[in-house]
Design a protein that fits this description.
single chain, Rossmann fold, alpha/beta, 7 helices, five-stranded mixed β-sheet, Spo0b-associated Gtp-binding Protein, Chain: A, 352 residues, six-stranded mixed β-sheet
Length: 352
């Protein structure tokens, strides 16, 4: 409905607290009623709610401003003002909140379900609280505290166990659809995948999340194509699966080019565990290119793949399970590199 969006800026504000009330009890046959002003209500909070059914920040580009309700003022007869309603901002898993000016990360919502970002102002006390033996008619009350206003950057980084990395049309989407419940578009031309696709794979009693990252082209780390957007999503994966297309005559250079792009964007990406997949084994000349690739990458394990050969698919499943289970990487540590390009945030800061 909204299209894919993984970064935007929004204005948020918590509610002001309601003012306390100045009131005196006036009743027949009660000559010494005294002060009875009630307290003001608390201002509403700004709350981020993580929802698993969301995959984009497009809805935040439709509504740019979020303001919680102000607390209501107190009333006589010691009646409290109503608290202001919170404003809830739904976001997908993997969302990061940043300072709009500096790009500094304020909060990583990984693992959170509901996060109170800005608290509303406290309500003011009514004059009933200020009565004393020597001050029996206080004609003042406390004002409510003001809320807080901020402009923040909201950025989405895909969270997955394994991220698929490769040139366009390298067979990433085909494998994702085969192994998971994903329905990523597959066609015989490049860039059929335009947004990151997630799928859940269950094998040998274990579950893992696979992410098909749109194809990377040479020069992506310098901003070629949509490179910066796509490379940023890879930073939240525990391990990487490199796809080498054996139908491409220049496939021997593919791994080196992809590795260079990742290193130029964030060197920490190459420290993640890797699975190297030589795809499209059923194409003409693929077997010979596989042997040449093994010679070129001597010492690296290469897993041949044809989605039409069950034995190769089975080997890929086992490789995925092995690399994730043996990586020992906690999700909190799997985000290495996503703050390394804070200066590049200016390219979307100007969109607002």
């Amino acid at each position: 409905m909204f299209g894919f969006s993984d970064e935007t800026y929004i204005d948020v504000a918590s509610g002001n607290g309601g003012n306390g009330c100045v009131s005196f009890r006036r009743e027949k046959f009660v000559p010494k009623g005294g002060p009875d002003g009630g307290d003001g209500g608390k201002g509403g909070d700004v709350v981020f709610v993580v929802r698993d059914n969301l995959r984009t920040l497009g809805h935040l580009k439709m509504v740019r401003s979020y303001r919680a309700e102000n607390g209501r003022p107190g009333q006589g007869a010691r009646c409290f003002g109503r608290n202001g309603a919170d404003v809830e901002i739904p976001v997908p898993p993997g969302t990061v909140i940043k300072d709009a000016q500096t790009g500094q990360v304020i909060k990583d919502l990984t693992g959170e379900e509901r996060y109170v970002f800005l608290k509303g102002g406290r309500g003011g006390l009514g004059n009933w609280h200020f009565r004393t033996a020597t001050r029996q008619t206080p004609r003042f009350a406390q004002s409510g505290e003001p809320g807080t206003e901020m402009r923040i950057g909201v950025e989405l980084l895909v969270i997955a166990d394994i991220g698929f990395v490769g040139f366009p049309n390298a067979g990433k989407s085909s494998l994702l659809n085969l192994l998971t419940n994903a329905r990523s578009k597959v066609a015989g031309y490049p860039f059929t995948t335009k947004i990151p696709q997630l799928g859940a794979m269950r094998y040998d009693g274990q579950d893992m999340i696979l992410a098909d990252i749109p194809g990377i082209i040479e020069g992506a780390s310098q901003g070629a194509g949509m490179g910066l957007k796509f490379l940023r999503h890879i930073s939240r994966t525990k391990a990487l699966a490199f796809f080498i297309d054996l139908s491409d005559e220049n496939c021997l250079d593919s791994y080196d080019i992809l590795s260079r792009e990742l290193a130029d964007f964030a060197p920490a990406l190459l420290e993640k565990p890797q699975v190297i997949i030589a795809s499209k084994l059923d194409e003409d000349g693929a077997v010979q290119r596989l042997e040449d690739l093994r010679t070129r990458l001597a010492g690296r394990e290469i897993h041949p793949l044809s989605i039409y050969m069950d034995e190769t698919v089975e080997q890929i499943k086992q490789a995925f399970i092995h690399v994730v289970s043996s990586s020992g990487i906690a999700e909190d540590d799997a985000s290495g590199g996503f703050t390394s390009h804070a200066d590049n945030d200016a390219h979307y800061r100007d969109e607002y």
